[in-house]
Amino acid sequence: MNDINQPERTRTYSWEDQAIGVKVGSTLSGMDYLRGIIAGKYPAAAIANTLDMQIEAVEEGKVTFSIVPQEFHYNPIGSVHGGVFCTILDSALGCAIHSTLPAGTGYTTLELKVNFIRPLTITTGKVLAIGTLIHSGRSVATAEAKIVDEQGKLYAHATTTCMLFPWR
Fold this sequence. Notes:
This is PaaI family thioesterase. Helices cover 24% and strands 35% of the residues. The protein has helices at 18-25, 30-38, 46-51, 82-98; strands spanning 53-59, 62-67, 105-116, 127-136, 140-149, 154-166. Strand 1 and strand 2 form a beta hairpin. The chain starts with 17 loop residues before the first helix and ends with a strand.
């Protein structure tokens, strides 16, 4: 319902063909693929455009994403929806694992555990989701991540277990 005194809010965005990433990603190490995304050689995940999040930094076993909370991230009670927390954490966790994988190895999340510490709002400013590899084996890898603001204040933390497999 739109109150007559409130302007309508709209948002338009675009994304690149995700088949490009699927095709090229299977031929590169995880590190080379992630660095290629940062350099603009390969398309970012469409979800990154949907949520307006970016990869800030990549090193072996550690990846940092950023997001500036916006009103379009909100739940009905005026704070960032928990699903946005989960998505940026899952991205940082998975990419921390991906950064260590050789060419031809894929992964998928088997388990995601998130602890919400405090809400994010449009007044929070830029936050970072920092994912770090804990363990990578033959078929399973684990990682941990946290969301912090630019002063280091903690908003959420998470762990994941991912299954590793030969990429299609």
